[in-house]
């Protein structure tokens, strides 16, 4: 049973959360809503601001090619290479069952140590206050959802970390997993068949997370022969968006930046007065 070792806290979240089918409907609705309305990106400051401040689409294309998807925003759909993330879910669930870990444990599908935590499996439990590191940031996010009455979006049947970090062995395993699934190191949705593109919900990490993001996505798990809600922690180069900042938005951001650069007075006043909330 996939939920045999689940904690009471995790079980309570599961019982109040959306099913994978509801997630599919929600993500498709958000996809078309944002496609029609556009969005104001909350970007990685070191790269995203440069991306936005260039009113030249060619320059923005060069940034994208070099660094992956930069114009991200929390709480919006992202596009991913579906075969890769289905394979990650299968491998994660397999490891979870072998090592008798609960669904809220942050797992790695490629490292020798299965869980992602420094002080035992408890430190990798994303439903526990004693979690540390990445697991702790997920716990804080889940807590914020429940406090805002959005606990139905909090639960994941598996939580996986797939990063090209660590020693050379782990980096080789990361690259090998990409090769095995046919995934590119820098994913561009338009370069693959539409049937191989999945939609996830970006939760945390569009800014101030050193290129690491977290998103939740419903996927079909062949290991359990059912649909699961899986939370992934990956690098921003493995996701793409279906919309980009418009030329008008980039021009507005550039004009706001120039006003702030040359304007007198307090930073906070300039921030509010120049429309600089265009960028986080």
Strand content: 5-15%
Major beta sheet, specifics?
A: 6 strands, mixed
Assign a percent range to the helix content.
40-55%
Question: What's the alpha carbon Rg, rounded to whole Å?
Answer: 20 Å
Through-space gap between termini: 43 Å
Give the CA-based shape. globular
Judged by helices, strands and strand pairing, the structural class is: alpha/beta
Which strand order do you get reading across the main beta sheet?
1-4-5-6-3-2
Beta-strand segment tally:
6
Mean pLDDT, nearest integer? 83
Query: Which consecutive residue ranges, at least 5 long each, have pLDDT under 50?
Result: none
The number of helical runs is 9
Sequence of secondary-structure elements: HHHHEHEHEHEEEHH
